[in-house]
Amino acid sequence: MTATLTPTTPGAARLHAAFARAKQEGRAAFIPFMTAGYPTAQAFPAVADALLGQADILEVGIPYSDPLGDGPTIQRASEQALAGGTSTRHTLALVRELRSRHDTPIVIMTYVNPIYAVGPREFMRLAQEAGVDGLILPDLPPDQDLEIADLAAEHGMAVTFLIAPTSTPARVKLVAEACTGFLYAVSVTGVTGTREGSALNEVPAMLALARQYARVPVAVGFGVKDAESAAQVAQVADGVVVGSAFINAVKAGQDVAALAASIRAGCTQT
């Protein structure tokens, strides 16, 4: 089917404004990630509040039993959240609670199966009511079933798809043109939290190609874990996504707010 994607949905406008504010401050946008319901459903809101105190955009992951794009850190967090009873509907209820206290844009990272388990239209209704601004869809090829993307636009939300260093120019063009929130560029081939070496090895060329086609900001994630690696990525990207580092910090009982402040400071563009 032909997508009716548009960058003018309310969610897209809020996301683009967040990137623009960060740029005015001389920064790449800081986009922390946390699995919903981690470490427990009761403790998650406080962790999310700490991240929202520093975030330009918060990414909340729906716990899923088969997260093919996630490394062991996020996989274990999902397993723990699922064992604690955090479902897709519960995730959206948690986001609704966060939205009642924060105006920072919030995006949901989800694989396709949880959406279909609820029902695409019902999922979008619940997400819109919760105040979700956009969806990150790592396993939805934008050249296949776009019912989900169309429904997201219908409910005022943006969509984000992913590219990787292995993406062909034709694939980058397809994905970049389909994104309405931002384009998510994976810094390495592999899963989250597994980067070794410089985060910039393959990113600049990938982003140069993506910007030939993208109508939206470009954010980079997978393996960015501290202020130093965030600073490297911030020199070439519009946004920096950090996930596993925060899950590890929660697990270790570290100060999540302090880590978030440090990484945000590292997003300064020089």
From TrEMBL:
The identity of this protein, by name, is: Tryptophan synthase alpha chain
InterPro entries given in the database record: Aldolase_TIM (IPR013785), RibuloseP-bd_barrel (IPR011060), Trp_synthase_alpha_AS (IPR018204), Trp_synthase_suA (IPR002028)
Pathway-wise, it operates in: Amino-acid biosynthesis; L-tryptophan biosynthesis; L-tryptophan from chorismate: step 5/5
Q: Which domain of life is it from?
A: Bacteria
Give UniProt keywords alphabetically: Amino-acid biosynthesis, Aromatic amino acid biosynthesis, Lyase, Tryptophan biosynthesis
| EC top class named in words | lyase
Q: State whether it acts alone or in a complex, and with which partners, per the record.
A: Tetramer of two alpha and two beta chains.
Could you tell me which species this protein originates from?
A: Deinococcus soli (ex Cha et al. 2016)
Tell me which EC number(s) this protein carries: 4.2.1.20
* Lyase is among the record's keywords: yes
The annotated active site, in chain numbering, is 59, 70
Q: Which CDD domains match?
A: Tryptophan_synthase_alpha
State if Membrane is listed as a keyword.
Answer: no
Q: Which terms in the GO cellular component ontology are assigned?
A: cytosol
Recorded name of the encoding gene: trpA
Which family would the database say this protein is a member of? Belongs to the TrpA family.
Known role: The alpha subunit is responsible for the aldol cleavage of indoleglycerol phosphate to indole and glyceraldehyde 3-phosphate.
Q: Which reaction is recorded as catalysed by this protein?
A: (1S,2R)-1-C-(indol-3-yl)glycerol 3-phosphate + L-serine = D-glyceraldehyde 3-phosphate + L-tryptophan + H2O
Q: Which Pfam families match?
A: Trp_syntA
* Single annotated GO MF: tryptophan synthase activity
